[in-house]
Design a protein that fits this description.
This protein has 392 residues and is of the alpha/beta class. It has helices at 35-49, 64-74, 83-86, 93-98, 106-110, 126-134, 162-176, 195-205, 224-232, 236-239, 277-289, 294-298, 354-366, 371-379, and strands at 2-8, 12-19, 28-33, 53-57, 79-81, 101-103, 117-121, 145-150, 184-186, 219-223, 244-249, 253-260, 263-271, 304-307, 322-325, 342-343. The chain has three domains: 2-35 and 125-225; 36-121, Rossmann fold (3-Layer(aba) Sandwich), CATH 3.40.50; 240-345, Nucleotidyltransferase, domain 5 (2-Layer Sandwich).
Amino acid sequence: MRILTVDVGTGTQDIYLYDSRVDLENGFKLVVPSPTMMVHQRIKAATRRGVPIALTGVTMGGGPSHWAARDHAQAGFPVYATPQAARTFDDDLERVQADGIQILSEEEIAALPNEVTRLELRDFDFTAIARAFAEFGVSLDDLDAVAVAVFDHGAAPPGYSDRQFRFDYLDERIRATNRLSAFAYRAEDVPPIMTRLQAVVDSALRPAPGQVPDFDAPLVVMDTAPAAVLGATLDPRVGALPRALIANVGNFHTLAFRLGPQGIEGVFEHHTGLLDLPRLETLLRALADGSLNHEQVFDDHGHGALVYSDEPLPLGEGGFDVVVTGPRRNMFAATTNRGLRPYFPAPYGDMMIAGCFGLLAAVADVLPELGEPIRASLRGAGGSGTPPWEIT
């Protein structure tokens, strides 16, 4: 059995090819620039050349790509975008236009002169990944599944906070299915409000007329932070704990889960750029003891907090207080003797692809017909395969 897993972040996209015939440590992997960083670089190159750009494709991750497009327009060079591509930057297209980006139809984009540099937006480019593997003699034909993780705010109604909208969504998913894999979906089951997840499905499996899907295998899509946290639980020291506090410190967002035998006991999400270590530790301690509330985070310009269990989580079991993963985990390098003691998990020897391992574990839940060999592989290197809060 072979499954391609792709965890799309802001700085990198982390790619792991699972093969049930080999130990997980021997699986092929790539850590390469993220799609939004690649678009950022291409727009910056167009700015240096002083040429117009036209953005087509689907909604994808913003941040660096948005900043580059805005800078291009502010430098006096035209920026055109289709409505779907423009929603990469904001669901409110009037705000996009206020940045100097002109919204055009697909037909209008096609009619632009040849000197306009055209860039296709998409979070998941299967063809490019397959071509990279092929350079090393590895074929991606005959996959049993593909799994992709992206961060998705969801499409909030006009006038409704996108931060509150995302937390309403998190609450609904946890109450419906209290497990980290609740944030993973088969392609056909993605909620319409999750527009970035849906865009991954559309670009891979629902191409334009006359084109064929990228692959013929089931597709699973998932939110990035739960995937990373689920991957962290596969570290043997973490999986051995009956309860755990795990923080994914991402480039843009920090999301922390409190996990126990009944599943998710609490969660908060904040913007990493607004946090320093003392503030983050305060939030983590409050999540652990159950005193954290939604307003404390939301009113600080974060997304919010939810606590589902009144039973405090004692810190220190296993010799550490908090499990920390993610590209900004070095924030905890400054921890003093008075701070929380972090543990940096490395599931199957590699922190960078924790999200890919989390995706793999989620596939075992979402595609139960593939579950047995996946769980056997996850147990094979000393990992529990099924931490106490993820047992089916």
